[in-house]
Amino acid sequence: MRKHQWAGRFLACIWILALSAAYGSPGSGRAGTTTSERTPSGFSAIGEDSQRVPSGFSAIGDDLDPVSKLPMRIRHDKSGCEFVLVPAGEFIMGSPRGEGDSDEHPKKTLRLDAFWVGVTEVTNKQYRAFRPDHDSDKSDFEYPDIGGLSFNGDHQPVVEVSWDDATAFCKWAGMRLPTEKEWEKAARGTDGRTYPWGNSWDPKLANSSDKNNPTRSDAPENEADDGFGITSPVGSYPSGVSPYGCLDMAGNVWEWGADWWDPNPYNTTEKKPWEIASGWARVIRGGSWQDSPSEHRTSNPWGLTMDYADWKIGFRVVVSPKPN
Ligand SMILES: [Ca+2]
Ligand SMILES: [Ca+2]
Ligand SMILES: [Ca+2]
Predict the structure, then answer these.
(1) Is 290 within a domain?
(2) Would 176 be classed as within a structural domain?
(3) Same domain, yes or no: 34 and 140
(4) 155 and 12 in one domain?
(5) Which of 71, 96, 271, 274 registers the highest number of CB atoms within 10 A of its CB?
């Protein structure tokens, strides 16, 4: 073999050794390194962020948010609650002065990180994974006669739960109640719409107080027929879905939120509602089977004391991704 051939092979060996040291041997990986450690900064391996799903929850399907790579849908293993991702970004909250009530002013653009929100209100069956003996027909109140209808169906939303009951479920499950900002973004998307499906009321898209409501007044707006006199099984109005895939964010039951409520937050404290450090009432959202359409507006908060419970108030839950 001639001298220049030896030199050529020697140089090739040096080149291969250098490549191997820099990137690892093809097909074997470097001992002691993980996929994420070998991913250049600013990039994520597909499926990598399923590791940000909290323990006790599982991804449903393979769909990932293209930006965060978080799973689009997850399920809570013990209760069966299902969640959909609300990606990070800006949204419009509240109503301009002159529209709606003082507790929703002013209209503002805010930003939230990504979170998962319950596709539906928590059902009786899901709540009974926590408290097996819960009875949604049992109340401290003497209600009007409703002709033997029951709130206890497995797939009806749990009711007769106070804010304290709802937060106890959340603590057991590793979840939390939505903040006002989270609830409103999940309900109306980014464009500031009045109802989850758009800007016009449609009685066929939500369980409102309609002609079937056995406790209704005779107001003209109650003459529509939405098919249910009291609570409906969750998800009974698929065409009333919110931009992110949440159901019954208008109507069926009011939903407890994490924040304090103030009827006049800007007039009395000059603070935003979520900046109130303490108060006498917690926020509820979305209206119920016993309420008229104006209560179902996505921007409309109301409030009740934490020990209050009745047949038109339930809750929905949220989960945050584990930190990067
Ligand atoms: Ca109804
Ligand atoms: Ca609701
Ligand atoms: Ca209000």
Answers:
(1) yes
(2) yes
(3) no
(4) no
(5) 71
Q: How far apart are CA 209 and CA 213, in angstroms?
A: 6
Are 29 and 91 within one domain? Answer: no
Average pLDDT over residues 30-49: 41
Proximal ligand: closest to the CA of 252: 2
Beta-carbon-side half-sphere exposure of residue 68 (alpha carbons within 13 Å): 22
* 28, 121: one domain: no
Q: For residues 84 and 33, state if they share a domain.
A: no
Largest CA distance in the chain: 106
| Residue 56 forms part of a structural domain | no
Among 215, 204, 304, 305, which Cα is nearest to 250's?
Answer: 204
Residue 20 belongs to domain spanning: 1-38
Which ligand has the minimum distance to the alpha carbon of residue 302?
Answer: 3
What mean pLDDT, rounded, does the chain reach?
85
Q: Does one domain contain both 8 and 123? A: no
Question: What is the predicted pLDDT for the residue at 268?
Answer: 55
Among 29-43, 196-210, 273-287, which range has the highest average pLDDT?
Answer: 196-210
- Please tell me the distance between residue 279's alpha carbon and the centre of ligand 2 in angstroms: 24
Q: Which residues contact 139 (CB under 8 A, 6 or more apart)?
A: 160, 309, 310, 311
> Euclidean distance between the first and final Cα of the chain, in Å?
57
Q: How many domains does the chain have?
A: 2
Q: Which ligand is nearest to the CA of 157?
A: 2
- Of the listed ligands, the closest to the CA of 212 is 1
Q: Given its phi and psi angles, is residue 100 left (phi above 0), alpha (psi -120 to 50 degrees) or beta?
A: left
- Whether residue 45 is contained in a domain is answered as no
- Ligand 2 centre and the CA of 54: distance in Å? 25
How many angstroms does the Cα of residue 165 sit away from the middle of ligand 1? 25
